Amino acid sequence: MLNYHQISIKLERLLALVLVIILALLISPLLPFKNIIRTYVVVSASMEPKINTGSLAVTIPINPQNLRVGDIVAFSSPDNSKETILHRLYQIKSTKPLRFATKGDNNNSADQWDLVDVGVKGKYIFSIPYLGRLIAFIRQPLGFVLIICLPAILIIFLEVLKIRKALDGEVQRRVQLELRRIPPKPIAVLILFTSIISLINSPKIFAKYTASATLTNLSFSFSSPDTTPPTSTINLENNLQRSRDFCISTSASDISSVKYIELYYSYNQKPWQLFPEKVIGNQGCFNFNSPEGDGLYSFKSQATDSLDNVELVDYSDYFSFQVQVDTIAPTTNLKLDSLSNSYLGQSYLQNGNFNNAMTAWVTDSSVGDHHIVSVGDSTAFLLGFQNLSLNSVDSLYQDFSLPNNSSTSLSFSFRFLSHDIAENDTFNVSVLDTSNNLIKNILSLGNTNSSFDYDSDWQTLNSSLSNLGGQNLRLYFSLTDLGVGNTNNSYVYLTNIKVSTLDPRIDNTSLLNFTSSDLGSGVGSSYPDSDNLSTLHYGENVIDYAAADNAGNNEKNNSQSFTVLLPLVLNKINFNNAVGESDSVEIYNNGTDSYDLSSVTLLINSSNLQIGLSGLLDSHSSLTFYLPDLNNITDKISLSDTYNGETSLLDTTTYAGNNLPGEYWYRSINGLGPWSLKSTLLSGVLTRKSQYKITLSINNIPDFFGKNSSDRLNYEITYGDSPEHQIAGQIFPQSVEHKLSERDFYLGTCSTGGICIPDSNIGTNFTLKLNGQINDQDLNIDSKTFVLEP
Amino acid sequence: MNKIILSVLAIVLTLGAVSTSAYALFNSTATVSGLTFSTGNADLQVYASNSWTNDWNLSNSVFKNMYPNFTSYQQFQLKNGSTANITLDISAKLMDNPSIDQNSWNLLKDKIKIAFQAYDGSSWESSPIMTSYYPLSLWNNPGYSLGVSLLPNTSNYYRMLVKVDDATNEELAGKTISGITFQFTGLQH
């Protein structure tokens, strides 16, 4: 029968033995005999339920040749050599070299890699559940304190107590007994803590998860050999382009694939040319740049597939895909046309019909067949190469000048005959300056027919030369012949060449005629329309006109001013207040024909005076009617015409003068402009006495001027530029003798001491302005400008 | 006296063990650092027929009428459906299929090239192509990593890009290989 001490000793020894075994197991990774046994902390669950997460797995080394399918092995991860994986052998894929497929028991697919023999670290033997989690806990600070530090402190504390007791030396006999029991304790402590250290250092091992998903039943099939060419088409969004750069969309299809699409173009139906830009793939855009300039372009696309099958193209079709490129705005000309008043334009060119041989015209070319020819009953000029094609230019020009602010137009008739293509032979009309610098292109015309036998027939071209006023210009006609082949000649007939301005003298029956032309896409719209022309009224009419072509090019607005004059106008009314002098009314005929006054009546409202006129008043002539003395009148005067029983008012005005002697109610002779009050009684004259002296003379000052003490005459003389000089003063008629006032003025500044400094920039223009007061009323007198020679 | 010596020895050993343990725990060069345990299952899913599954059967319906310079793609969606809190690194592999017509396979295996593109969330034009264009023969064994990872319970779009060599000769016309299976494997990161 064992007593307590014996049992205690045996238990302690047994504990020591167990701890030694555990130690042997656990410290194996650190000890030289780790080749015998290794431990790992299992951190993932792909081997569950066989090996749970958190277990401590124990492995032993093994020769890979001895492994069998179903064995669980630890191996270095083929993806990451720093990781160790614990999976089951799933398949032996080859024996030489030895390769395994592995798989986690808990995974739905095998691992992606092949495990080779050198990666095998050991064969799994058994695992201790939860021990790995205890290790993980120890690795945390709290776990370390609870599991390591606290027991250590307790042991140290107990041992200190024992040392203290031993030092007391009170129980020598018990010392001998205790000595037999002591040895296991240091050993146990040593084993315990060393084991814990070893446990802490156990490496982790992954029972790695893998999962898989599949795309199954994929197929790849190749089509039959493609011998069919692709087909392509063009998408033209607009058949008219007003920019030379535009996109031509294209697309193509093919049973295999389209490698590229090419573009062919024909300019004015001439031979097809390959556009250098390709569209790669089955769709895209050709950035077409109209290499031939404005004109009619036809297009064809041609696609090539990936097997170099080339689309067949019908090059005889010019019309399916056509674009008119037109970047030039139309021109609009305004003609004045009236049954009663024909257009009286002033021509600035001479001999436009060549009736006077070559008068005013110049041909500066020694080649060409130019000469004057008869065309029907008229004459014309033949320019160019009628008999033989030459590589040269034949030309004709005339210089002319345009007045400022003129609305000018060019018109001419021509007939162009060409036996060559437009890029070789062209008829050009332009306006140059006299140094032959281009001012404006009028026309550039070539053979636009597909044949080599082109006849434009007679055409008349009108072109506005507005905005060229005030310049010396040269109208230049030329025919360029490239001389390709003797019979590829071209020439043109010219006649009826006019450069003229519009005559603004129109009446309200005048008709305005607008003619717009565009050599490209044609005129699309223009303004004003004919209905607007009925709005012409008496006075100034500003007519804006322009056109737009079908491609959308807008002509710059032209503006022409017309003044429609009243046929018969009042222009001067003299209600002279001086006793014994007659009152009068003056009328003026604005028309180009005589005016029959027998139907005209003059009405003075306040006097209810109605005067019937008679006789003929010549064109652009005036007539003064003398009336009874109508003193102190403020009245409305009207002029009317009665024709077929209907009376129409011609002109009317309300006299607004002061009824002063010498005053008259006046406006410009043709009836334009506002009425104003003038005086004929007083007038001044400036004369020059010397370089720095002028004299103001006022003669025939009437007697009644000065009867009132407030009567005075103000004068103001202005002369010179930069700075403008001025002399001003007053004349009091009471001090004037013999109805004459003369004053000399020194043109300079004189100081008090008598030193005078002459003005500079005196010039020759002196403006005299007179006004004043008579009978306490303002007196209005004209201002005049005198040109005084130095 | 011996008892005193043994007790002192026990104290020294205890202190030494604790110190060594602390060194093993806190030294950054220790062979083992932080342990994290994963539990649950791993699952990689593909979207097919309005649901997530582990297999999308394409019924041999894709990539028809191919020709030299042919390019196309098959779009698909993968999802990390794992119950375990793990990130999956995705790789792809063409599975062996003994029933494939070997004559056609031998003709086409190096002509048809496959790459994979991963959607970047904004546009396919900006999305990176994750692998080179490898011929079918190289996808067969061992396959390639797609270089993408799927976080737990996330999904993303991918495209299998297909192109055919320009220099492919006409002997391929009319040839078909079908029953091809691509396996996408998610390996715990």
Brief write-up:
The complex is a heterodimer of chains A (about 800) and B (about 190). Chain A has about 800 residues and is mainly beta.
Model description:
With 790 residues, chain A is mainly β. Chain A has five helices and 54 strands. An eight-stranded mixed sheet of chain A has the order 6-5-4-3-7-2-1-8. In chain A, strands 19, 20, 21, 23, 26, 27 and 29 form a seven-stranded antiparallel sheet that branches. The longest helix of chain A has 28 residues. The N and C termini of chain A lie far apart (166 Å). The longest helix of chain B is centred in the first third of the chain and has 25 residues. Chain B is 20% helix and 35% strand. Chain B is elongated, with a radius of gyration of 27 Å. The N and C termini of chain B lie far apart (59 Å). The chains are: A mainly beta (790), B alpha+beta (189). At the A-B interface, helix 2, helix 3, helix 4, helix 5 and strand 9 of A face helix 1, strand 1, strand 3, strand 4 and strand 5 of B.
Q: Any descriptors?
A:
heterodimer; A: mainly beta; 7-stranded antiparallel β-sheet; 54 strands; B: 189 residues; 6-stranded antiparallel β-sheet; 3-stranded antiparallel β-sheet; 3 helices; 10 strands
What is the subunit arrangement here? heterodimer
Rg of chain A: 60 Å
Taking all residues together, what is the mean pLDDT of chain A? 81
Alpha-carbon distance between the two ends of chain A? 166 Å
Uncertain spans of chain B, ≥5 residues at pLDDT below 50?
Answer: 28-33
| Main pleated sheet of chain A | 8 strands, mixed
Which strand order spans the largest sheet of chain A, edge to edge or round the barrel?
6-5-4-3-7-2-1-8
Helix and strand sequence of chain B: HEEEEEHEEHEEE
- Summing up helix and strand content along with how strands pair, one would put the structural category of chain B as alpha+beta
Could you tell me how far the N terminus lies from the C terminus of chain B, measured between alpha carbons in angstroms? 59 Å
Look at the helices and sheets of chain A and give the structural class.
mainly beta
What is the average per-residue confidence, as pLDDT of chain B, rounded to a whole number? 84
**Form type of chain B:** elongated
Count the E strands of chain A. 54
Tally of helical segments of chain A? 5
- Number of helix segments of chain B? 3
Which bin fits the share of residues in helices of chain A?
10-25%
Task: Please indicate the percent range of residues of chain B in DSSP E strands (runs of 2 or more).
Answer: 35-45%
Helix-residue proportion of chain B: 10-25%
Indicate the proportion of strand residues of chain A.
Answer: 35-45%
The profile of the biggest β sheet of chain B is: 6 strands, antiparallel
